Amino acid sequence: xxxxxxxxxxxxxxxxxxxxxxxxxxxxxxxxxxxxxxxxxxxxxxxxxxxxxxxxxxxxxxxxxxxxxxxxxxxxxxxxxxxxxxxxxxxxxxxxxxxxxxxxxxxxxxxxxxxxxxxxxxxxxxxxxxxxxxxxxxxxxxxxxxxxxxxxxxxxxxxxxxxxxxxxxxxxxxxxx
Length: 177
Fold this sequence. Notes:
The chain is built from one helix and ten strands; from the N terminus they run H-E-E-E-E-E-E-E-E-E-E. The protein has 177 residues and is mainly beta. The protein has a single domain, classed as Calycin beta-barrel core domain (Lipocalin). 20% of the residues are buried. Residues 3-17 have low confidence and may be disordered.
């Protein structure tokens, strides 16, 4: 009996992994080029973002650049870049996002399924590489129209509550304002 159970386990482990296509319906609106206005702790800025499905449509890759001219909140100005890669975690039935920032932070976000719906997606960090232990982050996307979305990035330093770090309004490149 034990031998047959071990045999079945080995057979199931040797089978090809599932290549079922991911249903990107919840994130499909991101696939395009975007222009944005941004405001937050580092001042006001503008951004551009491109999102595309990659590697056999198994991942959603977003390449972002935000530029903040010198201003009172940020006398030297700043160019921020990040890559966000969304994927679907089949084991936990939810989307996840890995965000790589030019400042060397790497955030691993999971979708808060209970806080998300058709008009709002919420991702909460489970870990943050190169940030102080206990740092948390939250990304919230809301969709006020077909050609735009709002992105709110919040941070919580160890032992503190979430604080809005940046709010971005993204419009589909070429869309009428």
